[in-house]
Design a protein that fits this description.
InterPro entries: CheY-like_superfamily, NreC/VraR/RcsB-like_REC, Sig_transdc_resp-reg_receiver, Tscrpt_reg_LuxR_C, WalR-like
Pfam family, one: Response_reg
Helix content: 40-55%
Number of helices: 11
Organism: Streptomyces laculatispora
Shape: globular
Order of helices and strands: EHEHEHEHEHEHHHHHH
Protein name: Response regulator transcription factor
Keywords: DNA-binding, Phosphoprotein, Transcription, Transcription regulation
Distance between the termini: 32 Å
């Protein structure tokens, strides 16, 4: 996989490069400032991008704004965002462009190398990898919406786990229920949100739910 990295912390940036190259990937470019991100992505057109949210010159949200701009220029570019915090406004804008191939992980929650690499692979394959805290805040933003109010507490739990990119079997194990029960909850969620359940992957269903939550309406 060809990857572009944007990270201002030199130690972390070099660590990411070493980790990715030792895992068989190719880092085609690494940048350390917000204005450098989009030009590097447009020049190299990588298979995926790993971007820190807060980059020079202001250390606010340059990386996430660059991700939003990149998805406008390269709609199919898989992006994995790393952050110390949930930048809610831009996270919502990034997802509103289409959540396919999007990851948003909090650095403190990426505790193991294998978790990070699995999240990157999932995003590169067009799936989602959203930190539970990101999902929680985005759902809270829409909590007053009438369709969400109609969800039962269990359905909200299932929805949050779906949005994290988890498969039905994993959801069933975490909630200590059967996969059949999870499937029934998912069907109910789609019915209440006005989204037709499709026969595609869990990721596509998750993307539809996230699109609805971020104001894109039903399909």
């Amino acid at each position: 996989m060809r990857i572009v990295i944007a990270e201002d912390n030199a130690l972390l940036r070099e660590g990411l490069i070493l980790l990715l190259t030792s895992s068989g990937h190719e880092v085609v470019a690494d940048v350390a400032a917000g204005p450098e991100v989009l030009p590097a992505l447009l020049e190299h057109r990588p298979d995926a991008a790993v971007l820190d949210v807060r980059l020079p010159p202001t250390f606010r949200d340059e990386g996430l704004r660059a991700a939003v701009a990149a998805r406008k220029e390269l709609p199919d570019l898989p992006i994995l965002v790393l952050s110390q915090y949930v930048e809610e406004t831009y996270a919502a804008e990034l997802l509103a462009q289409g959540a396919q191939g999007i990851g948003y992980l909090l650095k403190d929650r990426v505790g193991r190398v294998d978790q990070f690499l699995q999240a990157l692979d999932r995003v590169a394959d067009g799936g989602t990898a959203l930190d539970p805290e990101v999902v929680s805040q985005l759902l809270t933003r829409k909590a007053s919406a009438k369709p969400l109010l109609s969800l039962t507490p269990r359905e909200r739990e299932v929805l949050e786990l779906m949005a994290q990119g988890k498969a039905n079997g994993t959801i069933a194990a975490e909630l200590v229920v059967t996969e059949r029960a999870v499937s029934k909850h998912i069907g109910s969620i789609f019915a209440k949100l006005g989204l037709e359940p499709d026969d595609g992957s869990v990721h596509r269903r998750v993307l539809a739910v996230l699109a609805y939550l971020e104001g894109n309406g039903t399909r």
